[in-house]
Structure formats: structure tokens, C-alpha cells
Amino acid sequence: MGGTRGLRRFAPLGAAIVLSLVVFFTPASGVPTAPPGTDKVIHLLVFALLAVTGRWAGLRAGPLLAGLVLYAGVSEVLQSVLPIGRDGDVLDALTDLAGALLGLLAFHLVHRTRRTTTPRTR
């Protein structure tokens, strides 16, 4: 998988990873204020995006989910120990997991629908 095709498949995942790093590791002073619960929605959506773009890149669901679970835990620990004024939160990690599962389910449903509606060539 090389050239332009590989770039088209992996570029969205790379962009999603960079986005997640910015969102999760921006110092507290740079995080805008938002209504309560907004952070959970963002965690859910970012991990759903990571899951969808990971599957789009061709990663298998099981290893991708394992990597996202690891990333969820490590990111929360890092938020609590890095000097960025952020706190780690178990509920954020659980929300991350829910987002990853939601993204995998969404990808599966879209992929399954595309397979059943796309005419087969013989």
C-alpha cells in the first residue's frame, strides 16, 4: 500500500491523532470555558473519530480498540502528571472507550451497508 492510495487512507488517521494530541494536551490556560459536560462530548467524538479513521486506514478492529484503550488510559495519566494544569479523570477514560466503540460500530454499519448495496461484478 504505497503512494497516493496509502496517503489517502492514512492521512485522516494522522490528522485525527494530531487533533487528539492538541485537544488532550493543551495546557489548561488555553482550554476555552464551556458548559458542563462539553468535555465528555469532546472525548466521545475524538475517540469515535480515531476509531473510524483507524478502520479507514485498514487497521483491524481488535488491535485498534486495544490501542485506543491504552491511549485513553495513558492520556489521562499524562494529563494528571504533566505540568499543563490538567487533571486525569476515570470518567473521561470511560467516555473515550465509549467513543471508540461508537466509532467502530459506525464504521462497521456503514461498511456493511456499502457492501450490501454495492453491486457485485463477476
UniProtKB/TrEMBL annotation:
Residue ranges annotated for the VanZ-like domain, each copy included: 38-110
Signal peptide: none
Keyword hit for Iron: no
TM region(s), chain numbering: 40-57, 64-84, 90-110
Keyword Membrane: yes
Alphabetically ordered keywords of this record: Membrane, Transmembrane, Transmembrane helix
Name of the protein this chain belongs to: VanZ family protein
Organism: Pseudonocardia sediminis
